[in-house]
Write a structure and sequence with these properties.
Distance between the termini: 74 Å
Order of helices and strands: HEHEHHEHEEEHHEHEHHEHHHH
Helix content: 25-40%
Strand order of the largest sheet: 2-3-6-1-7
Number of helices: 14
Structural class: alpha/beta
Shape: globular
Radius of gyration: 23 Å
Length: 342
């Protein structure tokens, strides 16, 4: 007997009709930088596996979009993609929402309610902000990942066929050290860890992203950004990353007075901070300079300044340590930490 329209693809027995459901649409991912293309290459490879994936990166970098890309490129694309933000649900409701509950399990439980695991049967469960998952629920998630079974509140054990992709914008290593995140769960979630670089680390992607969002938001296909506006966009630091860029483009489209968007239509923070924001840090030669060379030089100087200590250099550059390790490997940089004999 099926649940009452909780999910048209699944039944109480765990059956589902994946073959009758059209495949999930693979989202368009825009970016031409080397680091973004490398990320896509790994995402495509991992899509063909059943491995759990941990997406790490700042807020607004597109973690859910990458998760949907992996799902839509996988053999599970005919199954559902079910997202859940672990930080947006009160702790006392999260257990029931994640694993489901049975009628009479608690006051107000007037009928069986499948959780997100059951709703994602045959597909992918995306757990956003996984670092905020309460400590008391982490053993249950670990069991679901290891044994592929769940136990609804007030119910009995059920088998599930679900792939889990999780995401976080916090340093889980710090959470482990603080005792608020289980180390064994981290390694189970991060069979394949993927780091999404912030937009400020891939300026080559700003023009194609801006053009993509302009086509998406504008009513007319001939709307364009003036060269001055594009220069301002490229020179801005984008603390809100790709999400902020999309919002800025939408705002300019709304208030534009013609088919060309000019500097006067930029938000004030971009008009004031865009041009020359980095001129005091980076001195560019007149004949141009490779962005890869700039990043390589910055990393080299930071490592020298920090005596070859990766943790200190990562903190100095204000990036996660794993991002620094990735770039050291990418550019073939090697530094031997200095040993203080005092």
């Amino acid at each position: 007997m099926c649940h009452e329209k909780h999910n048209t693809l699944e039944c109480e027995t765990g059956c589902h009709t994946r073959k009758n459901k059209p495949p999930s649409e693979v989202p368009t991912l825009v970016g031409r930088s080397d680091v973004f293309q490398a990320l896509l290459a790994v995402a495509r490879r991992v899509a063909g596996s059943e491995a759990t994936v941990l997406l790490q990166g700042e807020s607004g970098t597109g973690k859910e979009l990458i998760a949907r890309f992996i799902h839509g490129s996988s053999t599970r694309r005919h199954g559902p993609f079910v997202p859940l933000n672990c930080s947006a649900i009160p702790e006392n409701l999260l257990e029931s929402l994640l694993f489901g509950h049975c009628k009479g399990a608690f006051t107000g439980a007037v009928r069986d309610q499948p959780g997100k695991f059951e709703q994602a049967q045959g597909g992918t469960l995306f757990l956003d902000e996984i670092g905020d998952l309460p400590l008391n629920l982490q053993p249950r998630l670990l069991r679901a990942l290891q044994e592929r079974v769940i136990e609804p509140v007030g119910g009995t054990v059920k088998a599930v066929d679900v792939r889990v992709i999780s995401a976080t914008n916090c340093e889980l290593a710090q959470c482990i050290n603080q005792g608020v995140f289980r180390e064994d769960l981290y390694y189970r979630l991060a069979v394949v860890p993927l780091f999404l670089p912030p937009l400020r680390d891939r300026y080559e992607d700003i023009p194609p992203l801006a053009t993509h969002f302009l086509r998406k938001k504008a009513d007319c296909s001939d709307m364009e950004l003036s060269p001055c506006v594009m220069k301002k966009l490229i020179n801005y630091d984008w603390p809100g990353n790709v999400r902020e860029l999309e919002n800025v483009i939408e705002q300019m489209v709304i208030f534009s007075r013609g088919t060309t968007i000019y500097e006067s239509e930029l938000p004030a923070r971009l008009r004031l901070r865009g041009t020359g924001a980095r001129s005091e840090v980076v001195r560019l030669p007149e004949n141009g300079y490779s962005l890869d060379d700039i990043i390589k030089e910055a990393i080299s100087q930071a490592m020298i300044k920090c005596g070859g200590n990766q943790a200190r250099a990562a903190a100095f550059l204000q990036i996660p340590r794993h991002a620094l390790v990735y770039r050291l490997a990418k550019y073939g940089l090697q530094f031997t930490p200095k040993i203080d004999l005092k």
